[in-house]
Amino acid sequence: MPGLTTRRLVQVLAVLTATAPSAAVAQAPPPAPITMKQLKPDVWAGLGGAGGNSTIIIGKTSVIVVDAKTSEAGGKDLLAEVAKITPLPVKTAIITHSDGDHVNGLAAFPAGLRIIAHDNNKKEQQTALAAGGRGAPPADRLPTETVTKSKESLTIDGVKLELYHWAPAHTSGDLVVYLPDQKIVATGDIIVTNRADDNPNIHQEKNGSTAGWITCVKGIVSLNADTFVPGHGDLLTKADVQRKLAATSARREKIAEMVKAGKSVDEIKAALPDAPAPGAPARGAAPPAGAGQAGRGPAAPAAAPAPGRGAAPATYVDIAYAELTKK
Question: How many domains does the chain divide into?
Answer without folding.
Answer: 1
